[in-house]
Amino acid sequence: MRLIIGSRGSQLALWQANWVKDQLSCQGHAVEIRIIKTTGDKMQNVALTQSGTKGLFIKEIEEALLEGSIDLAVHSMKDLPTDQPAGLAVVAVPEREDARDVFIAREGKPFAELPPGSRVGTGSLRRQSQLRRLRTDLEIVPMRGNLDTRLRKLGRGDCDALVLAAAGVHRLGVRDRITAYFAPDEICPAVGQGALAIEIREDSEKVAEAVKLLDHPATHRAVRAERTMLRRLGGGCQVPIAAHAISEDGQLRLLGVIANLDGSKLIRATASAPPTEPDALGVCVADDLLRQGARKILESL
């Protein structure tokens, strides 16, 4: 088949799209990538939390998919809202990269040794709230832009350190910049972090057949548990809700975290279930968080 992939134009998005292109080309398909500029790409000077728009980095790509100008879309799973437009489906989730967050310090200092008042850059409320939980003496600096832009801002002194997703740092070949990794019980990752979502039209049977070969069932189940938890809580990707699911001893284990913005209140919940029950696991952890007071935190935001 001749297949057109829709992708954002950032270096990381194109790495992801080209990886999918290479996998499909190996199956004998003729594949090209079409770059689509999204609302999130156009709003570089606006904090994501102030945009008031869902699906900032996928809306225009999904519109192109629905109108038929592209055959499939490759998204970062953490950008994908839990409610998809009618007629679209995520049919493949490739094996996940490292889901953790990483710490990159300009002078290579460990996180615990950063001097009080040091400026740590991140555009994520989830990271901000958990960083403040770990250290109240740091200044959190709003930081947007692609990976290269953020590293450049770090180098010129806009901040003293960054917190980023390990997956992007690994994929773009700059893991030598990493000072340390945060364990999930220190800073719990975003829902779907490190995973890709391959989205198609539901009626595209031949495309589905081609891309389903890229699906990694264990990753798909883990991400499904995380996204079910998020959906149950009624949160989006710009709310400080975090989740991390892994396969462990024949079970699927899910950690869920929600915190208020200053980190003074943080709630955790964990549970395990058979790998065949990711939805039940997500609901279980979400309900535990709600019992502990998650609703009050969400309403305060």
Please indicate the percent range of residues in DSSP E strands (runs of 2 or more). Answer: 15-25%
What structural class do the secondary elements suggest?
A: alpha/beta
Largest sheet: 5 strands, mixed
Q: Predict the CATH topology of the largest domain.
A: D-Maltodextrin-Binding Protein, domain 2
Rounded Rg? 19 Å
Written overview of the protein:
The protein has helices spanning 11-26, 39-42, 59-67, 125-134, 147-155, 166-171, 205-211, 217-233, 278-291, 294-300; strands spanning 2-7, 30-35, 72-76, 88-92, 101-105, 119-122, 139-142, 161-165, 180-181, 196-201, 241-248, 251-259, 266-273. With 301 residues, the protein is α/β, with parallel strands linked by helices. It has three domains: 2-94 and 196-215, Periplasmic binding protein-like II (D-Maltodextrin-Binding Protein, domain 2), CATH 3.40.190.10; 101-181, Periplasmic binding protein-like II (D-Maltodextrin-Binding Protein, domain 2), CATH 3.40.190.10; 228-300, Double Stranded RNA Binding Domain (2-Layer Sandwich).
